[in-house]
Structures are given as structure tokens and as C-alpha cells.
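Lab meeting notes turned into a lecture example. A postdoc, R.K., suggested we walk through two folding results consecutively so the class can see how the record format repeats. The first protein's sequence and C-alpha cells come next.
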Amino acid sequence: MTAPTGRRERKKAATRQKIADAALRLFLERGYEEVGIREVAAEADVAVTTLFAHFPSKEALVFARDRDFERGLVDAVAERAPHEPLVPALRREVLAMVRHCAVEGAAPVRRLVEGSTALRRHEESMLLRHADALAAAVADDLGLPRATTACRALARFVVDAHVLARGADDPEAAVGEIFPMIEAAWSAARHPGTTDQSATQPS
């Protein structure tokens, strides 16, 4: 994510982070369902209207890095080095996401999400949106229609790879196991009729 450079942008980013931190602190202390929006706003010392200017829903407060993760996936495609293969670039981004989810303090947040039906549903919707954004980026990169099935399938596989890996005993090893399968599937989709031995690595 590009760091905010202007004074106004930095102030907005700081306010957003303050709200997210206050919300998470209350949710972890008392439970997601037990805390109301007004309480979060009061804890962050902002108006309710200010809170909603930064977060469209209560659920979104738990996923403050939503935009960053989506942008990271899109940028892994659009901003990779010239001639860098697509799947390794995506693997690198997913590995970074998995490492972020393994930092100290992440486990209680994961339990918070898994313990709330509303948060699980929000996350499912969020991940589908990430996959749609990634599929569009891949299609644009290759000059293909955005509805191309191979691009949409690749995007779903990549997003699911992150979900599977973060829940594994060894998340980084899981990324290493999953991505060769994604690479093989992508190669087969891009080069129908080739074998694993003869398939050309997709761009």
C-alpha cells in the first residue's frame, strides 16, 4: 500500500487506525456482539459519522487491512518486474500475507472472527471481492476478457491458498506445497494439451 504523503491523507490514515485499534480492543475485551458502534466511537474519541466515513459497517472494523490485502494482490500482478512470471509473484504476495497473519496478537483476532457468524460471513464476502479484483487484474495483464474462466479460477485458488496456509501448522510450508499445484493448473489452462514436463511456464 502506498503510504499517505499529504498532511490530510496522513491525518485520515491516523484516524482510521485509531478507530480500528479502539474497536479491536473493545471486541477482544468484551466480545464482538457485546460492543456497539457508539461505544467504539466514544473509545476512539470520534463522532459516529466519522467512524462510518472510514468503515462502512461494524464488521469492517475487524478487517482494517482489507484494502491493503486486496491492493497487494492486484499490485503483485500489475506492478511485478518485466518478464517476471505471474504465479511466483502471487506466491510472494500470499507468503507476505500469511506472515502478517502469524504476527503476535493475530491469533485472538482469528478466534474472534471464527466465533462470530456475522464476521465469518463478512470475511467470506471480502475474500470473494479480493478474488474478483485479482481476476480482473490478471485478465487485464494478459489482455483477456475479465470473465475469462482461467483468470477467475486462478484468483480463487490464490485467495484460497492464503486461507488454507494461515490455518496450517506451518503456514509457510503450506504455501510451498500449494503453489506448485496452482502453477501446474495455471500452466495447463494457458497451454492446453501440454504435459507437466513440456508445459511452458505461463507469463
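The second example is placed directly after the first for contrast:
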Amino acid sequence: MSATDRLNTIKGHLSGNYPQGLLAGEVAIITGSGQGIGKSCAELFAREGASVVVTDIDVEKSNQVAADINAAGLKAISIPGNILDADFAENLIEGTVKAFGKINHIVNNAGFTFDAMLHKTTDKQWEMMLAVHNTAPFKIIRAAAKYLRQKDGANKSIVNISSTSGLHGNVGQANYATAKAGIVGLTKTIAKEWGGFGVRANTVAFGWVDTRLTRAKETGAAIEVDGQKVALGIPTGNKSGARVNPFADIPLGRSGNADEVAGSVMMMCSPLSSYISGHTLEVTGGRGI
């Protein structure tokens, strides 16, 4: 697709001449899409015309999201699995190509927190965050190289999900912050190495979005990885009894929700972002400005 063709495509989308969606005819893989932001992304991508590959460690949730998308008259398949498994990346990529014949977009969204103060962080806590947020995305992208590194003029992109913890650090998250900073470096390298093949690579760094990672830890949300239960959420114990506004430093005065922030990910994959690569988009409600 020439630059003129891309411009005409964008103009068509903006003028409403492409009712089938911004991603019509394209194929998108979204990890961690059984719930939360990943689920919202899967649903939005499908509504914008993409054939979506839903994948999550929770088999039942992964299958349900795909089933709901198909029930709505859209297209999706489920390839559930644990991103830490040695054969996961290859199975995911080859399963996608077998089902849809190609890959246009990869959204590396799967992840979780394993918090502790730095001096109390164990080797396992440290290594697991790097494995989940750095090694797993790297393996998925590497497995897709033979399909993406082609000068075919297609709209192709990789979006890796980061966090403001990775950009600014965060108390109790030395492991998570390091991993989320690392994914930014990986993304910029992909942008430089694969740009010649028309592949754009960007990072979306979320601030406070209402998910199980930001809700009260006392609610008991947890994930089981390698036989270990990892508690999720933010401790809310306050010995002083004083009420604290958690959104005081967010200009919009609230947290984001999964459906609205999914739009930022879809935007980075769409033709509207055809000349954006190597960028980190902060989606924070203005926090940190």
C-alpha cells in the first residue's frame, strides 16, 4: 500500500466510507483477553472488523469471550494457554495463521503484579515479572517474525502494554516497574529493526485503570501461576482512619475503565496511527503531567 493509498484509506474512515471498521479484514492477537482491558480490546477490535484471537490463562474465560464475539456476528477464536509455557508462543502464532492465514497486529497485554518492598522481594518475584512482561512478549513477537517481516504493504503493528510504574517507578513494585520499563526498550528496538517491513511498534502505558490490579487487595483477587497463588490489588489499610482520595493527582478526578482505555490500544493499531512508531502513549487521565 502506497502512502497515497494509506492517506485515502484514512480519509475514507474519517468520512464514514468504511462502515466495516478501521481494522476490516485484519487479524489481531490479544493476550490476556479473557477479562479486563484485554477483553475490552478483543471486543473493540472485533467491532472494528478484525478477526480476533483471544488468549488467556483462564481457559473458560478465553473461550467465553470468543464465543460472545461470534454470537454478536463478529469473528474470533480462542487459543487459551499460559504465556510462561515453553511452547505457548509457537502454538499461538501458528494457530492464528492456520485459522486466519495471516497476522496484522499483536497486543501483548497479559500480565499481573507480584508486589513487595524491594528489600523483601524474592528471586522468584523478580524473575517472574521479567518472564511475564518481557520474555513472553519477546517470544511471541519472535515467533511471528516470519509472518510480519514481509514487505507486503499491509497495516501491521505491535502494541506492548506498559505502565506508569515502568515510566516513573512505584513503591513496592521494583520488579514490575523494571519489567514495564524493559518492554519500552524492546518496543523501540522492534520499531527500528522492523520498520523497513512496514511494522509499527508502540507502547501504551496505563495509569489508574479500574481492573483487578488496582482494586482493593482485601477483595481477595488472585492469580495462580506455577502452583503459587499471587494476591492482586492495592492494600487499602489505613491505620489513621483518615479518608484518602486516590484520584487526587489525576486531573480528570477518576480512574479509567477498561472499555474506554481499549480505544487507545485500537487507535495505535489503526490506519489513523500509520506514521506513529516507537512511541509510548501514556493513558493516565492526566496523571503525572
